[in-house]
Structure prediction request, 276 residues.
Amino acid sequence: MSTGTDGTPDGARAVAAALVTAAAVTAAPVTAQDRARCPATAVLHRIGDRWSVVLICLLAERPRGYNELDRAVADLSRRVLTRSLRTLEAEGYVRRTARPGPPYRVEYALTGLGESLHAAVRELGEWAAAHDGGPREG
Amino acid sequence: MSTGTDGTPDGARAVAAALVTAAAVTAAPVTAQDRARCPATAVLHRIGDRWSVVLICLLAERPRGYNELDRAVADLSRRVLTRSLRTLEAEGYVRRTARPGPPYRVEYALTGLGESLHAAVRELGEWAAAHDGGPREG
DNA sequence: CAGTATCCGACACGATACTG
DNA sequence: CAGTATCGTGTCGGATACTG
Prediction:
């Protein structure tokens, strides 16, 4: 494994460098600010919420309209659907395209970044599937 | 890419199969139950919470005691620290070893599954670092 | 050292009704 | 079709004090 100028493993720095640097590399405790500064934090927070990953998976298939998404996901209120889409858009994962009407039409689609995230999440999903109910070794 | 018996891409099934199967593969909407049944959901929920990943990173370095962890992470209440560790233990990522005292001593360490998760999360962290502030296309 | 007990605020999410 | 407004609820997380 390669190392940085300070001898810290480069691999570790990706998630740890900003998330855990202080404590992992030095003796200083990790603060909430350290965590906030880590690029991984936003991503983890996003994929950790209830419906974002589902929406990303749906949009990975093909672009969809608002009501189409609403129908595609039961148990998801319009309020939350709207907010989730807005957040995904703000973070660059989803592109919203409005075509003035009538007939009025809005389309949601993944951006390149969104597709990239989808691939990354799928990797994690495969890990989860592989270890589901499997290893219970101490 | 290989396909399942129904023509669904195997890769997609890992995260999508249980998370989005219904809507992605058929026309039926995704329900909260579909989501709950997906093996990825628990993992996403775990790494999505505020401190679990930080704890995993710290324990990936070396096993630590309770107060040691408490000191290593500022802005983390003992109440939450305890609950996070209990959850990580219940899900098989962390092993708790108590040595009766005095002097009393409890040690927390990653299990094999925990180390595996740490590696998976680090991959995601590298993805996040690579795309941080980068692509604003689309 | 390794926790528990109690209280409280912030936020995510759900239900329902209404709008351009 | 594509949203917003309002309200209520549950869970997460923080502060503080106490215990074996």
In short: Strands of chain B lie at 94-99, 105-110. The first helix of chain B runs from residue 10 to 19. Chain B touches chain A through 61 residues (CB under 8 Å). Residues 65-67, 70, 78-79, 81-82, 98, 101-106 of chain B lie near DNA strand C (CB under 10 Å from a C1').
